[in-house]
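Morning. Coffee machine broken again, so started the prediction first thing and wrote up yesterday's gels while waiting. Chain of 241 residues, entered below exactly as on the submission form.
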Amino acid sequence: MIKLSIISHFYNHIEKVHEQLARWSQLPEQILSMVEFILVDDFSDTEFVPPVTPLNLRCFKVDTDIDWNQAGCRNLGVLNARGEWSLLFDIDQKLTPAAVPVILANLDRLDPSTLHYLRAEDSYDDINKVTSEFHVNSFLVNTSKFKTIGMYDEDFTGHYGYEDLYLPYMWEKNGGLKTLLREPFFFEGNLNFRTESLNRDLERNAALGNQKVALLAQHQGPGAVRPTHLLRFQWHELNKK
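Came back before lunch.
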């Protein structure tokens, strides 16, 4: 039975993917039987061929070239997830070896209506330019609940930033909660890793985010407007059996 879907996405930087696969493959067999690993290739320039691995690995490829399509990639991963819970994080972040076994052992104790953020070592907030206690775009969440009151707003795709900041705001407006998990849930961030080939101007998405937050602020009670028109691109599963 799959209890946890571990989801990440990447654009180029295939070496980071193989680093993750090598780390995940070291998990004990009894742990691997309860976990699936989902990778989404966001239209990379270099072809990614899923390797032979002991992992329950599923890989998806976005076939439409959209700049800054993190929201769409993460939605694709979650919508295909079979685990009761999903753990989403960036491809350069590395779970400590103890993290997955401890997460699995405690899933039944977690509130399904809460976004559970994981503590991060050297996590960097690229928008506010500060080092923070956790990474806003890395969290553990109940898969079904996330599909019901969450999901990323793909209106932000094509431009840089703010889809990760708008998500928790919208989540809370829909009745969800947020919390920060403590040890041993650590990520090891990398401040020097970033995509340099795309425009990182924040102006368009900052204005869009402010507009959306203002609309949500006018909404009274639960059931705020959620993102619609998900997966605005062509995609296929690479290693479908």
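The mean pLDDT is 89. Going to sketch it on the whiteboard this afternoon.
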